[in-house]
From TrEMBL:
Protein name: IclR family transcriptional regulator
Originating species: Sagittula stellata (strain ATCC 700073 / DSM 11524 / E-37)
Ranges where the HTH iclR-type domain occurs: 16-77
Lineage, opening ranks: Bacteria, Pseudomonadati, Pseudomonadota, Alphaproteobacteria, Rhodobacterales
InterPro entries: GAF-like_dom_sf, HTH_MetabolicPath_Reg, Tscrpt_reg_IclR_C, Tscrpt_reg_IclR_N, WH-like_DNA-bd_sf, WH_DNA-bd_sf
Superkingdom assignment: Bacteria
Length: 264
């Protein structure tokens, strides 16, 4: 008798990982909007009750879940901290974008919101200026080494000394103008000073005849996740520096206040 083997391999049995099971339980509770018993969670997830009980106990120990007075399982207080942090980050961009457009109207120069992407500074939003003809090569999505711009220095200014030094040693590169500081020690010192001052200025380092005047936007932990940066022609800096520096600082602080942040 001829036995023919199927060309289609049998489906491999997969084992649900502990983290997937934990996420499944969190998802079920979130979708049901109500505390549940361990048995109900097991039934809803299709997992063995013993497995669900074990995962639930571990999540309760870590405050990811909690028990109600009637011994049902509900979301834990630790999740609130994660949610608030995430919401603050999302709200921060929305508030920063509103501040960007308002600042743009007041100073009539280009304003950018910048963020850190590893060893690079990235432009994540931009409003064009109206003070006169002015073009720069940077646009939304542009990435340049942290040491090239005022925003780049601010975005690591909150880090501990050793970490700042490590970052600049890894990412500092000469700019096309040849004027960007590349010494990691000096960059680390300037970065910290600018962050504490709440203002950073660079001229001609990223592009010829271009100035950047930036202020940090700090989060709940005092870390700089975003910056507001006024980008303008070098020849207008002397005339407008005091006003622009005051306005960009104020705009950044207003974003923090709108988020309910208070820093000493």
């Amino acid at each position: 008798m001829e036995i023919r083997m199927s060309d289609t391999p049998e489906p491999r049995r997969t084992r649900t990982s502990g983290i997937d099971r934990a996420l499944q339980i969190l998802d079920i509770l979130t979708e049901r909007h109500a505390p549940m018993t361990g048995y109900e969670l097991a039934k809803a997830s299709g997992a063995p009750p013993s497995t669900v009980y074990k995962v639930v106990d571990e999540l309760i120990e870590r405050a990811m879940l909690s028990r109600t007075s009637d011994e049902r399982v509900w979301l834990g207080p630790r999740l609130m901290r994660y949610g608030l942090t995430y919401r603050a980050r999302m709200n921060a961009f929305g508030e920063a974008e509103r501040a960007m457009f308002a600042l743009n109207e007041r100073v009539r120069e280009m304003v950018q919101i910048c963020a850190r992407d590893e060893g690079m500074m990235q432009v994540v939003a931009m409003a064009e200026g109206s003070a006169g003809p002015f073009r720069v090569t940077s646009d939304v999505g542009t990435r340049v080494p942290l040491n090239w711009t005022a925003s780049g220095r601010l975005l690591v200014g909150h880090l501990p000394d050793a970490k700042r030094l490590e970052v600049f040693r890894a990412c500092a590169r000469p700019s096309s103008t040849g004027l960007a500081e590349t010494d990691p020690v000096r960059l680390s010192d300037i970065s910290r000073k600018d962050f504490l001052d709440g203002l950073s200025v660079q001229i001609d380092t990223s592009e010829d005849q271009v100035a950047c005047i930036a202020a940090p936007i700090r989060d709940f932990d005092g870390e700089c996740r975003l910056t507001l940066s006024v980008v303008m022609p070098k020849h207008r800096v002397e005339e407008k520096f005091e006003m622009v520096a005051r306005e960009v600082r104020t705009a950044a602080r207003d974003v923090e206040k709108a988020l309910g942040l208070r820093h000493g």
